[in-house]
Design goal:
The complex is a heterodimer of chains A (578) and B (364).
Chain A lengths: L17 H29 L2 E2 L7 E2 L2 H7 L4 H32 L5 H13 L2 H12 L5 H10 L11 H26 L4 H8 L4 H30 L2 H7 L7 H9 L6 H28 L20 H27 L16 H8 L1 H34 L5 H7 L2 H4 L2 H14 L10 H11 L1 H13 L4 H8 L4 H30 L2 H4 L9 H10 L3 H28 L8
Antiparallel strand pairs in A: 1-2
Helix pairs in contact in A: 1-12, 1-16, 1-18, 2-12, 3-4, 3-7, 3-9, 4-7, 4-13, 4-25, 5-10, 5-13, 7-9, 7-10, 7-22, 8-9, 9-12, 9-20, 11-12, 13-25, 14-25, 15-16, 15-19, 15-20, 15-22, 15-24, 20-22, 21-22, 22-25, 24-25
Chain B lengths: L1 H21 L3 H12 L3 E6 L3 H14 L2 E6 L2 H13 L7 E5 L1 H7 L15 H4 L18 E9 L2 E4 L23 E4 L6 H13 L1 H10 L3 E3 L2 H9 L5 E3 L3 H9 L6 E3 L5 E9 L6 H12 L1 H14 L31 E2 L6 H15 L2
Parallel strand pairs in B: 1-2, 1-3, 6-7, 6-8, 10-11
Antiparallel strand pairs in B: 3-10, 4-10, 5-8, 5-9
Classes of the chains: A mainly alpha (578), B alpha/beta (364).
């Protein structure tokens, strides 16, 4: 039984009247609706605006007709769907298996392996992709050149500029790592009694995983998969770098090009985003329908936590995971570090290729220190606000009978289904146009709000999945003893879902300090975080200095993660059943 | 009738007073503006750079005007400021950097003030102090003052790849042996790729460019570092849209010995300064614009730019010499027609056409 169970003596608690509770829930619904619907409606309106940068803008259907007359759009949609589904399929199969191995088996050093996946998740995407180009690029890749020298061949073994190259780099960067990151805490919270029963009946470890663990965890797995799929469908950075040389275009690159045009083609970007939103909403509805019917409470008053014995497979599986993690983290990290000490990134054949000048350049810039503190403020504030808001929204959606709970849950999906490139524009419109926000426009509060809106879907849905896995009898016992909803939430529910909340806090923190798109249009010189500084370096042609800032962001995130983990372990969180 | 007379008299007095003010000594106006601006916070949009930081520190030290710089991509600045202005928010004073978006988007959209209204010092206003009067402003509306024009070469050849193929003329770019061995920067947006293609377009016309893009099957790179590494490490024989600064840096470090520029023509990138419409601190903006465009400001600019950049430390002012190592970056104004002026109104059509052509071929 968790230490989070009922306290020995409850203080005298005043119950909040039902009307007030209902009013509070309506207020939450109204705030969420406003924050997510405003950008969406602006998007719709924007799709009809023609020549918004001319002296006389008009309205009409021109943007829509141009979008539908694009000759390569269908091909781009086809590539987007096949690429996204392929890498999500690979990532979910491996992600579930790895999360289960880490959380529920006697695999050696599970904590360190978990941290390894955190590191992979927090690595900066652009420099890591270029590091893979340096390794496996046609004609220039270190591995290709080594293979040519070693085997006397005159062709490239690895072709990073290809459909499979895109899949590979995605899986090796965030796609797999985020699955492990989000699933491990959920898997840890599962009652071992289910697995014990299966093992007693003679089922093998793998059969138990497939027939017991996966069905029980399905709501969480579905949430993680749908979120991953939506993110994949919106991805464009890796596709731009690896897809362009291979003539592979995806849907989001069209949005990217529209946003970065001269003038920016906001109407076309909006129309493309609306089409995306309409296409993805059924996926969200399906997920909601499924999670409501298939939720299994895996944490109850009879909770127990025992690990499954992997037998002879224990060390070989550990070895495989270590090799995988080395490829996902150490290899690109070493290349990035080497790149930051090179006079010119990737130019190993210069007479004196090494220099410390980029480090000096990066650290002597006056704005680095300010950007560092801005990032810390943004990360911590967004993380704290996110944990509180998302827990509250998830709780209202799952644990109350409030009539608007389904709508509230649905609304939290909207920020994820609007492509990030245009969501930021919608948020900008909201802060610039609504008088209520004017006093805070240009301050750190705006950036915090933007990060909270941007991470709302992931945060709410993961905490919601954790709540769905939590049986209601503990709360009912608390209420029976006279505790209020808030007291029960604070003393019973929160400690049990703490691992999931902490993971979300960490993810929001990481987003806060690495985010570019969401804050690029909102920050001012006084509030610009490290991520924008990195963008400035990269745009200014100082790629090596940009990589250094990227490394710094990674190190900060990992340090925060380790610190959070250390505090969590000290406090007994993340060891459900202990 | 009496009221009418009083009105006429007041108007005459007003006219007289404004005439006096107009005839006021510029040095006095300059001093008065400085006094008014003292203690204000100048809000900037710029593309960043260490040299900019040093300049602004000097400016603050000299005039007691604090500067708040926000570094953004030009496309982000455009989207942001337009949205703010549409909603009645005017929080930016100045925009400083490459002039392409200022000239082609912001000025026609009415987002900028006339820069002449902000010029006080005779040494700045006097066209004879600038190398070519026609290139002082980015566009005929005179909203953008261009203080620096940098000649850039965007086409390079690596002789280590296909050494038998000579690329000594533009026609040689159509040599079938180069098919699939040419790297081109994604020219669907304004960047070195579309700028270099616009020079090709200017020299040989649309049919040649169309033929080049469709028959030579160039490999398209969207990331500048990726393109640079591809040509410098021998992954491609020819690069269109390479950053010439990367080539210079490579040469400086003792590498890229098998690489050379292709005589394809050059494009000129202009840097300028503009004041946003309804700037909240007009006096501070005035002080900065005049100081920065003065001999003192431009000398400091050239010195600081050279400290941080491998190319482009050139001023359009006649009395400010380019940095010794950057002499080749100064345009020859006698042959101005040969360049593609990608950041001002002279070259707008060329870039648009290059982007359109590139998209047309890419969409096939």
């Amino acid at each position: 039984m968790s230490s989070a169970a009922l306290p020995a003596a409850l203080p005298a608690i005043r119950q909040v009247p039902a009307v007030l509770q209902s009013l509070f829930y309506t207020l939450v619904l109204a705030v969420v609706a406003f924050l997510v619907l405003y950008p969406a409606i602006r998007l719709l309106v924007g799709s009809f605006e023609i020549n918004p940068f001319s002296a006389n803008p008009t309205t009409g259907l021109d943007n829509w007709s141009e979008v539908f007359s694009r000759p390569k759009l269908l091909r781009a949609i086809e590539d987007t769907i096949t690429l996204s589904f392929t890498r999500q399929l690979i990532a979910i199969i491996f992600g579930v298996t790895i999360a289960w191995l880490i959380a529920r088996t006697n695999l050696p050093m599970p904590g360190w392996l978990e941290v390894g996946f955190w590191v992979a998740l927090f690595m900066p995407a652009l420099p890591v992709t270029l590091a893979w180009v340096m390794l496996a690029g046609e004609g220039i890749g270190i591995l290709n050149n080594a293979a040519k020298a070693l085997f006397g061949i005159d062709y490239d073994i690895f072709k990073i500029y290809s459909w499979w190259g895109i899949v590979w780099v995605h899986v090796m960067t965030a796609t797999l790592a985020i699955k492990v990151f989000l699933l491990v805490p959920a898997f840890r919270n599962m009652d071992a009694a289910f697995e014990d029963a299966a093992r007693t009946c003679g089922a093998s470890v793998w059969k138990t995983l497939l027939h017991i663990v996966v069905p029980i965890m399905l709501p969480t797995i579905i949430v993680v998969t749908v979120l991953g799929l939506i993110r994949s469908l919106q991805a464009f950075e890796i596709e731009l770098i690896l897809g362009s040389p291979a003539k592979i275009d995806v849907y989001s690159t069209a949005i990217y090009r529209a946003v970065n045009g001269q003038p920016p083609q906001q109407g076309i970007a909006s129309a493309l985003s609306i089409i995306f939103l309409v296409a993805v909403v059924p996926l969200v509805a399906m997920q909601q329908w499924f999670s409501q019917r298939h939720a299994v409470a895996s944490v109850s008053s009879k909770f127990s936590h025992r690990v499954q014995d992997l037998g002879r497979l224990r060390w070989p599986l550990f070895g495989i995971l270590v090799v995988l993690l080395l490829m996902m983290t150490v290899l690109p990290f070493v290349l990035l570090l080497m790149g930051s000490f090179m006079k010119l990134f990737g130019m190993f054949d210069l007479p004196q290729p090494w220099t410390t000048a980029h480090w000096t350049e990066a650290f002597t810039r006056g704005d680095l220190q300010r950007a560092f503190w801005n990032s810390m403020k943004l990360g911590f504030a967004a993380s704290l606000a996110g944990m509180i808001c998302f827990s509250l929204i998830a709780y209202i959606s799952v644990r109350t009978r409030y009539s608007g709970r389904k709508l509230l849950d649905f609304l939290t999906w909207l920020p994820a289904v609007i492509p990030g490139l245009v969501l930021s524009l919608g948020i900008l419109q909201m802060f610039a146009a609504v008088p209520l926000f004017r006093p805070i426009y240009g301050t750190m509060v705006v950036l915090v709000l933007a990060v909270v809106i941007g991470t709302m879907t992931l945060g709410t849905q993961i905490i919601k999945a954790a709540l769905l896995n939590l049986g209601t009898e503990l709360e009912e016992a608390s209420w029976a003893c006279g505790a209020s909803r808030f007291y029960t939430f604070r003393r019973v529910v929160l400690p049990l879902i703490a691992p999931a909340v902490a993971v979300i806090g960490l993810e929001v923190f990481a987003t806060g300090i690495s985010v570019v798109g969401l804050v690029a249009l909102l920050g001012t010189g006084a509030t610009q975080p490290l991520s924008i500084l990195q963008l400035i370096y990269l745009d200014g042609g100082f790629f090596e200095s940009g990589s250094i800032v990227g490394l710094l962001i990674t190190v900060i995130t990992i340090t925060a993660a380790l610190l959070a983990r250390y505090i969590g372990l000290k406090a007994g969180l993340g060891r459900a059943g202990s | 009738m009496k009221t009418h007379r009083i009105g006429m008299t007041l108007a005459a007095i007003g006219l007289f007073m404004s005439g006096v003010a107009g005839a006021q000594n510029p040095q006095e106006v300059w001093k008065a503006t400085q006094a008014k601006a003292k203690g204000q916070v100048l809000t900037f949009q710029s593309q960043g750079g260490k040299s900019m930081d040093t300049l602004l520190v000097e400016f603050t030290k000299k005039f007691g005007i604090r500067v708040e710089t926000t570094v953004s991509r030009p496309s982000a600045t455009i989207a942001r400021v337009r949205t703010e202005q549409n909603n009645g928010q005017f929080i930016w004073d100045l925009w400083w950097g490459i002039t392409s978006n200022m000239v082609h988007v912001a000025a026609p959209a009415g987002m900028l003030a006339k820069i002449d209204d902000y010029l006080i010092l005779p040494e700045v206003k006097d066209a004879s102090n600038w190398r070519h009067a026609a290139y002082m402003y980015g566009e005929p509306g005179q909203h953008v003052f261009t203080y620096s024009h940098e000649v850039t070469i965007g086409a390079f050849r690596n002789k280590a790849v296909l050494p038998d193929v000579k690329v000594d003329s533009l026609e040689a770019l159509l040599d079938p042996r180069l098919k699939g061995r040419i790297a081109v920067r994604d020219a669907s947006v304004p960047n070195a790729g579309s700028f270099t293609l616009s020079t090709l377009l200017k020299a040989k016309g649309p049919d040649f460019v169309r033929k080049f893009l469709s028959t030579m099957e160039p490999r398209v790179y969207s990331n500048p570092q990726q393109l640079d590494v591809a040509i410098m490490r021998g992954g491609a024989a020819v690069a269109i849209g390479m950053q010439s600064s990367a080539f210079s840096e490579c040469r400086k470090a003792g590498g890229c010995k098998t690489m050379e520029e292709i005589p394809l023509g050059a494009f000129v990138q202009s840097r300028g300064v503009a004041v946003f419409k309804n700037a909240p601190h007009p006096e501070a903006a005035r002080v900065f614009v005049n100081w920065f465009l003065s001999k003192e400001g431009q000398e400091l600019y050239v010195r600081e730019w050279a400290r941080d950049n491998i190319a482009g430390a050139v001023s359009h002012r006649k009395d400010v010499a380019p940095h010794q190592d950057h002499l080749a970056d100064m345009p020859d104004f006698a042959k101005a027609n040969q360049y593609a002026w990608v950041s001002n109104s002279y070259g707008g059509k060329d870039i648009d056409e290059a982007i359109k052509l590139f998209k047309e071929i890419a969409d096939k």
